[in-house]
Amino acid sequence: MNIRKNKKSYWIFGKHPVISAILNPHRKVLRIIISKNKEKIYAKTLKDKLFISKKNINVEILPTNHFNKIINHGVNQGIGILVEPLELININSFYNQVSNKKTNISVLLSDINDPHNVGAIIRSAVAFDIKNIFLKKNRSPQDTQTIAKVASGGLDKVNIYNFGNAGITFKMLKKKGWYIMGLELNTKYTLNTIKKDKFNFDKILIIMGSESSGISPFIKKNCDILIKIPINSNNINSLNVSCAAAITFYQINSLINDDSSNTISRSR
Predict the structure, then answer these.
(1) Which one, of 127, 121, 116, 125, lies nearest residue 149 by Cα?
(2) Domain membership flag for residue 2
(3) Mean pLDDT of the chain
(4) What are phi and psi of 234, to 5 degrees?
(5) 262 domain-assigned
């Protein structure tokens, strides 16, 4: 095999991340390897997935010690795939999208720099059927092995949009009818408050701020509402951003699917 790892390509390992990458039509796959002791488990599955994806790639069966040397990670499930990073999508292509979903939820990650947190947020987003993630150009970690590993296949199931000027982005989103909701510690509104109001917006953008300072004053001004997660403890006043994201996604989805819930006002 003469395909070599380049500076940008990286290995994805584990059953679910590998299959998700194969089935993603936008993912360029360079190489697929299986540990010899896992051949019976994965060979047919990979053959079927490659047929579905129409990717003509040979599956290499390697001695276990050789496989482990290439992947170089203790927990790899005996299956790996060498890929090129996904290209981020310019946000301009997002504005005119038409969706058949009753409610569309998207997430904007503002200056979240830890790839573990980004990966965990993507995994939670996929779990709650959130398909669109916005990342600030040159201010967020891009497609990396760490994000792919933590996202557990989720990275290849979402659309990652790249935005530059936040002011223009918010202006366009509001023009298209998006309701912008920011997570913030210092606000009187909580997820429980929202539950008591009527919730009927068909386009919701949830903004998650940086691990250290939250969302910026500029972004706060552009939010239709700022909400916080109520914490019943005097010892801890905040959650890790990926934990906060999962709770928020769950709560918003619960509201959307609950016809008895009341409405959020657009006024602040």
Answers:
(1) 116
(2) no
(3) 85
(4) -90, -5
(5) no
Instruction: Kindly state the average pLDDT of the residues 46-66.
Output: 91
Residue keyed to tokens 């912008």 = 180
d(CA 20, CA 119): 14
Question: Do 117 and 173 belong together in one domain?
Answer: yes
Q: How far apart are CA 179 and CA 171, in angstroms?
A: 11
Domain count, the chain: 2
Per-residue pLDDT band at 2 (split at 50, 70, 90): very low
Residue-wise pLDDT tens digits, 117-132? 999 999 999 999 999 9
Mark out the alpha helices in 83-240 (DSSP H runs).
Answer: 115-127, 145-151, 166-175, 191-196, 217-221
Q: How far apart are CA 19 and CA 220, in angstroms?
A: 39
The tens digit of pLDDT for each residue in 132-154 reads 999 987 766 766 888 999 999 99
Domain that holds residue 55: 10-83
User: Does a structural domain hold residue 264?
Assistant: no
Q: Is residue 265 part of a domain?
A: no
